[in-house]
Amino acid sequence: MRAVPIARYGAPDVLQVTHADVPEPGPGQVLIAAEAVSVGFAQTQMRRDCFPAPMWKPTLPVVLGGDVVGRVEAVGPQVEHVKAGDRVGAFLMQGAYAEYAVADAATLVPVPEGLDAAAATVLPGAGPIAVGTLATGRLGAGETVLVHAAAGGIGHLSVQLAKLAGAGRVIATASSPAKLDFARSLGADAVVDYTRPGWTEEVATAAGGRGVDLILDSVGGDVLLAGIGLLAPGGRLVFYGSAGGGTEVPKVPVLDLIGLKFVTGFSLSAWQRLHPQQYSDGLAELTDHLMSGRLKAAVHARLPLVEAAKGHEIIESRAHQGRVVLLPRTA
């Protein structure tokens, strides 16, 4: 099979296509013949060895991870609830940039027939993260939500899901006029370029001067710290990524929270473990929204596996609107 490992850390050109043996699924695992594989900002950080979370300590060479959608090719021992031919999705920390991938059967999500494979890559990871951050932030009907990086692979889903969940006002931030227009087209009530000086004043004005009830922050850094000042009394900030760059997550001064403000971190795996029913219900609703057309999973680029480096270049250029997806079966 074709695979795209990295043998060293560095620029996108370290992503080189090679031929490898098709892996064998072990106990509790399945082999997936991949139809589509997502490219995310986290994978560009992993490629550069600046991913801020401690779970990324692989032995090189390694094939990067991502959201994989495809059909079960084979099942290993002790797998009973899925079978060969089932259409599934899985989020993998490693092993996704390939024509075949091995995943733990317990982590699989069902992918409906007829759903575009590239769009379906939101089901294993990006979509549940958008759902989970809103649930963790306890969005209430009529509340004001600030979504950072609102044109990205997760943020563009968060804008739509917040509206579907009854948010009174959704303020979206992005880094270019095209991205701001994109966020507005998805239902954002106000858009702000968070790379401009004075962006916090624009958000405050858009929130009507009373503050923001919920912030979904995948940028981190100074943007996270500035967001605390935008929270209304009782407001919540959910941090789930550091797309702003760097490996250091800022320290939050406790005194900044005196006005009954709340900051929490989010990871998909922790949410699944702590709230399995909420995760299950959220995934079902997410799938229903996709199938009905109420939720748009935008795909900015569809690339063959051999152009994985180009996928990383698109992500790092900050030009994408929605998902960047590799299609392993495309020549």
Automatic annotation (TrEMBL):
PROSITE patterns: QOR_ZETA_CRYSTAL. Pfam families: ADH_N, ADH_zinc_N. Residues 10-326 form the Enoyl reductase (ER) domain. Signal peptide: none annotated. Gene3D superfamilies: Medium-chain alcohol dehydrogenases, catalytic domain, NAD(P)-binding Rossmann-like Domain. Coiled coil: none annotated. InterPro entries: ADH-like_C, ADH-like_N, ER, GroES-like_sf, NAD(P)-bd_dom_sf, Quin_OxRdtase/zeta-crystal_CS, Zn-ADH-like_protein. PANTHER family: QUINONE OXIDOREDUCTASE-LIKE PROTEIN 2 (PTHR43677:SF4), SHORT-CHAIN DEHYDROGENASE/REDUCTASE (PTHR43677). This is NADPH:quinone oxidoreductase family protein. It comes from Streptomyces cynarae.
